[in-house]
């Protein structure tokens, strides 16, 4: 039904300066790893106590060669009238079977974690983990003003 919030509980980012210098002007491969580690029932304390699901997650960016690492751990709070069914399914399969729910959760984690990762990688001078659009002067290629 609704994602209530997302909080980062652990942030780790580091670079290996020697490896980074050795791969200058070479291709660097970047992979993502997003995983839901645990699902449990929790209580949200507002005016009334409300049962919610807490999804613990890990988001990692892996550079190859290993010039640095970024790992974010956190949790996402989610409310749903079928929270018992989701929790029982997790306990049985250790996975989220509902593909729509899984896509919603992973997309939210991916979006929020990527925004945080942009700032963190810039802080330690790691290469950006995805290409940003670039403006190309129209006189060079009018068909590709933005590439």
Give me a quick take on this structure:
This protein has 147 residues and is α+β, with helices and mostly antiparallel strands.
- What is the global morphology? elongated
String of helices and strands: EHEEEHH
Q: What is the rounded Rg?
A: 20 Å
Class by helix and strand content? alpha+beta
CATH H level, superfamily name: SecB-like
Written description of the protein model:
This protein has 147 residues and is an alpha+beta fold. The chain has one domain (2-144): Bacterial Protein-export protein SecB (Roll). The protein has helices at 17-22, 83-93, 99-123; strands spanning 2-15, 29-45, 49-64, 68-79. A 4-stranded antiparallel sheet has the order 1-4-3-2. Strand 2 and strand 3 form a beta hairpin. The radius of gyration is 20 Å and the shape is elongated. The two termini are 37 Å apart.
């Amino acid at each position: 039904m609704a994602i209530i919030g997302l909080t980062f509980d652990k942030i780790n980012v580091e670079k290996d300066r020697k490896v980074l210098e050795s791969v200058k002007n070479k291709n660097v491969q970047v992979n993502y790893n997003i995983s839901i580690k645990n699902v449990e029932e929790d209580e949200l304390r507002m005016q009334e106590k409300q049962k919610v699901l807490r999804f613990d997650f890990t988001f990692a960016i892996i550079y190859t060669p290993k010039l640095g690492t970024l790992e974010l751990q956190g949790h996402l709070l989610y409310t749903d009238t079928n929270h018992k069914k989701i929790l029982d399914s997790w306990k049985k399969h250790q996975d989220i079977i509902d593909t729509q729910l899984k896509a919603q959760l992973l997309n939210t984690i991916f979006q929020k974690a990527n925004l945080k990762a942009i700032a963190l990688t810039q802080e330690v001078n790691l290469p950006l983990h995805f290409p940003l659009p670039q403006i190309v002067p129209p006189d060079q290629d009018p068909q590709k003003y933005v590439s």
